[in-house]
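[SOLVED] Predicted holo structure with adenosine-5'-triphosphate

Edit: marking solved, answer below. Original request kept for reference. I posted the sequence and ligand SMILES and asked for the 3D complex as C-alpha cells.
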Amino acid sequence: MLPAQTGPDLRRARQRYLAHGEAPPADLVGAMLSRSWQRCLAAGLAPVGRLPSPLQLDASQVARASDRQSELVAHARPVMEYLYGQTRDSGSMVILADDRGVLLQTLGDMDFLSRAERVALMQGASWHENQRGTNAIGTAIAECAPIAIHGAEHFLERNGFLTCAAAPVMAPTGRLLGVLDISGEQRCRHPHTFGLVRAAAQMIENRLFEARHGDAIRLRFHPLPEGISTVAEGVLALTEDGCCSGANRAGLALLGLVPADLGLTPVTQVFQIRVADLVAWGRQHPGEAMPVLRHNGQRVFLRVELAHGARRIVAAEPARSTPPQDAFTRLDSGDAALQTAISKARRVLGKPIALLLQGESGVGKELFAKACHESGPRQARPFVAVNCATLPENLIEAELFGYLPGAFSGARKEGCPGRIRAAHGGTLFLDEIGDMPLAQQARLLRVLQEHEVVPVGGSTPVPVDFVLICATHRNLKQDMEAGRFRADLYYRINGLTLMLPPLRERSDFAALTARVLHELSPEQPRYLDDRVAAAFARYHWPGNLRQLVNALRTACALMGDDEHTLSWDHLPDDLLDELHSQPTPLPSPHPPENLHALSNAAILRTITCCEGNMSEAARRLGISRNTLYRRMKGMPN
Ligand SMILES: Nc1ncnc2c1ncn2[C@@H]1O[C@H](COP(=O)(O)OP(=O)(O)OP(=O)(O)O)[C@@H](O)[C@H]1O
C-alpha cells in the first residue's frame, strides 16, 4: 500500500499544480494514488478476480448522456480530433467521459481499440473508480485534478497493460463537466502525453468560457505580462455591475477563490481597482496589459476585453452606479476617508459654503481645492491660489487686497488689483491660512462679510464674488483658543471642514502608487519591485504625496526605456537610507537582554528588512552568507 500523505506542503503543491498546470510533484501523485487505492478497498473492490457487473450504457442511454453534456461534447470534439491527429499511430485512443465516468466519445487506432474493448474501454462503459478501481478517468473525477496512471498503478490487475493520462474539464462556474483522457499500451508510454492532455482540457475550458461569457467584460491576467494569452492565464468574467460571474480554473487558483465565490464576489474585492477604471483601460488600451494589485498586495498584469454587449452595458453604466467622472475622479484611488471627503465636497459644489481643508503638508490639499473648482459651476472662471505662509508680512496686504497707484514706496505705478479681485467669479484658495497675521485676518474678514474689497491707499470698495477654500496643516481650533487666530474669521471660513488623510494612513497606497506611476509614465508600464513595494508600504512618508510623487518621478527618470521594474537602484539615496533604517518589529516579543541577543535582533531585523533575501542581508551586515546561516542556526527558536 502506498503511504497516505497530507499536510500543508502537499496542499500548497496541489494548489500550484492546479493553478499553473505544472507537472505534479511526486509526493502529490503518491498521495492521490494512495487515497484512490484506499477508496477502492473501501468500495469492496479486489485487484484480481471478477468485477461486480460494471455499468455499461446502451446506445440510446449514451445518446441521452451526451445530450445532458451537449455543450461539453460540442466544444470537446474539435480538440479531441486535434489530439488524435497528434497521437495517431501511437497505439492509443482519445476519450471523453462525462462527470460520472461514462465514456461518451472515443477516437483511436483500430488495433488498440479492439484490445481496449476487452477491458471495456469503450463508449457507454463507466470508468468510475468504484467500478474499475484506480484509473486515470475515475481518479481524475474523484480528485478533481489531472492525473496519469501507469501499468501496475491501476488497482485492477487486468488494467495493468494500460497507461492513461486524464484531466478534468470544468464549466466556467467551477462545476465538473467531464474528463478528457488519452489511454494507450503501457509499453508505448510517451512522456509528453500527460502535458498534452492537460493543455487540451484547458483549451476546452477556454472554449466553454468564451461561449458562455463572450458578451461580458473579461479580464485576462497572470503574474507575468508574458503569461497572458497562454494556457496558464487566469480569466475572469464580470457582470455589468462588476461581480465575478465566471472564471477558468487557473483564474480561481491564482486568486485563491473557490467556485462558490462566483456570483457573490465583486471584482473590487479581488483587485485594487474600480470597475470604471477597468472599463476605461479596456476602452483606451485594447489588447494592452496593466499592472494591478490584488488586495494581498500581489501584483498581476491584467488585460481588459470589452465585448460589444459589454461596451453597451458599460456605456449605460455611469448614469446608474458609477460616481460622476469629474476632477475628483483622478484623486480617488479607493481610500475610504478620502472618498468621504470627496463626496461631502461634491454635495456643496456651487453653494455659498466656505471649505476648510485640513491635513499634513503634502497630502494634496491644493490639488483637492483645484478639483473642487474644476468640478463646480465656476470651472471656466479663474482659480487663484495664495500661499499665506510664503508672502512676506509687509506685502501680504497689498498682494491680497490690491493697491492704488503710488499707494506706498516701491509700489507699481499703475497700481495692482490684488489676488482677491483676480479671483472674481471663480475660486480663491488661501493656503496656510493659519499663518496669516492677525491684522490681515481682520481685513479678510471684512471682505468676506461685505463681499467687497478696498485696495490699499484707496477708500472706494470694489465688489467681489468668489468661492473661498482655505487650507492649513495647523490645528486652527487650538490656534483660535490660544488667541493666534480670530474666532470670527475661523467660523466664517469653516463652512465645512474636510480632513485629508496622511499617506501612511491611506488604505489605497498600492493603487495610488500604481496610478501615479501610470501618470508619470503613460507609455511605459512601470511597477514597483515587490521588496520596494513592501518597504514603501511600511514607510511613514513624512512628506506625504509630495514626497512619494517626487521619489517616483526621479525613479522613472533614472529607469532605462526598456526597464519596467522600479527597484532599489532607482531610488534617491536619502529615501533609500530612510527605507533601510526604518524600524521593523522584532520577531521576539521580549526585549533583548545582552550583547548576543542584541546582535541576534539586529540580524533578524536586517533579514526582515531584506524580505528574507539572505545575500542582501549578509551584505548589509558585512558578514558572509555562511556566517549568517551559522548565526541563524545558533539562534533560539
Ligand atoms: N492624488 C495625487 N496624485 C498625484 N499627485 C498628487 C496627488 N495629490 C498630491 N499630489 C502631488 O503632491 C504634491 C503636493 O500636493 P499639494 O500641494 O496639493 O499638497 P498640500 O497638502 O497643499 O501641501 P502643502 O500643505 O505643503 O501646501 C504636488 O506636487 C501634487 O501634484
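OP edit: The radius of gyration is 34 Å. Thanks to everyone who chimed in.
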